[in-house]
Amino acid sequence: MSIPQVNLLAVLVAGVLIFVLGGIWYSAIFRKPWMRLMGKTEEEIKAGAPSGGAMAALYLMAFVCALAIAFAMAVILNHFEPVTFGRAAAVGVLCWLGFAAPTSFATAVFSMTPKPLWMINSGYNLASFVLAAVLLAAWR
């Protein structure tokens, strides 16, 4: 199997958008419910947060994961010609429904993660997949 050509600049931008979405998702949109469901206070999170190079390494790993999502989505979209915005969004939802949602849900069930916490975390994945797919469809 050969990997189809993808627009690497679009993949980079999609990766950046996924990374930024994560920052907004967990700090502005769902910060309070996420912390409550994690059983943490803001003080506990700040006290337990790594500093300096360790924090930079965490951000780098998150960004590399975002790039991997964007690249995989670009490859998958090449198999759904013609790539329209609607089709791209549907592919993003399909990838979430087929891969991310069931695997993360099974893990959440067995680790006894509260369902609302799973919904926040998995919702981020859904939004990331759709955002990346639509951006990649626009920038072919």
Give a summary of the structure in a few sentences.
The protein is mainly alpha-helical.
Write the layout of secondary structure elements.
Layout: H1 8-29, H2 31-38, H3 42-48, H4 53-77, H5 85-110, H6 115-138
Q: How is this structure best described in words?
A:
The protein is globular, with a radius of gyration of 16 Å. It has one domain (8-138). The protein is built from 6 helices and no strands. The chain has helices at residues 8-29, 31-38, 42-48, 53-77, 85-110, 115-138. 80% of the residues lie in helices and 0% in strands. The two termini are 21 Å apart. Helix 1 runs antiparallel to helix 6 and helix 4 packs across helix 6. With 140 residues, it is mainly α.
Q: What structural class should be given to the helix and strand makeup? A: mainly alpha
- Overall 3D form: globular
- Give the helix proportion (percent range): over 70%
Please, what is the average pLDDT?
94
Q: Which regions are unreliable across 5 or more consecutive residues at pLDDT < 50?
A: none
Describe the main β-sheet briefly.
none
Give the H and E element order.
Answer: HHHHHH
- Percentage of residues in DSSP E strands: under 5%
Number of helices: 6
End-to-end gap: 21 Å
